[in-house]
Amino acid sequence: MRGFRRHIVIGAVMLLIAGIYGRAQEPAPSTPPPPPSATQQPPAEAPAAAASSSSKHSRSSHASDFLIIGTVFTDKAYAFPNVHLRVRRATEKKFRWEAYTNSRGEFAIRVPQGADYEMVIVAKGFADQSKVISAKSGISEDNVVFQMQPAAGGKK
Questions:
Q1: 116-156 pLDDT, tens per residue?
Q2: What is the CATH number of domain 61-147?
């Protein structure tokens, strides 16, 4: 009889502990946000700050830019990370935009619309490649793919 009571007491204690532990694991009930009062108003933005932010957006808007996106692969069709890309207007000698491919060989370069661009891809041990991209068509992006070839006399 004494052993039976011991099992009942131990079982009751275990249920009590389980109930306390279970309650501790439940997230605290969230309190709803206070209702907006008629006297509270959002802070007003200073007129100078509003004017400068709107003029900043109008100067640096990329809405009419042309996006050159693409991927560079090795000669064995693997993604080619860290490849150097340079872009210039076809009528200029100086390169004005540059980027590197990410770990998946992908890149994106934003240029102004309305011109032809020359893109040059440079990777150590591989022959340089170039491609002319036209940003005059009215389409806002062009997707290009490059598969690099080993340089003449280079190791594979």
A1: 999 999 999 999 999 999 998 877 888 999 999 999 875 55
A2: 2.60.40.10
In sign, the C-alpha dihedral spanning 113, 116, 119, 120 is negative
Taking the alpha carbons of 77, 127, 97, 132 in that order, is the dihedral positive or negative? negative
Token representation of residue 15: 């249920």
Q: Is residue 105 within 8 Å of residue 71, measured between CB atoms?
A: yes
For residues 62 and 111, give the distance between their C-alpha atoms in angstroms, rounded to a whole number.
9
- Strands of the 129-134 sheet, one edge to the other: 97-100, 84-89, 116-122, 129-134
Going by C-beta distance under 8 Å and a sequence separation of 6 or more, which residues neighbour residue 152? 127
H or E segment at 18? helix 2-25
Task: Map out the domains of the chain as residue ranges.
Answer: 61-147
| Confidence (pTM) | 0.58
Closest Cα partner for 75 from 126, 8, 36?
126
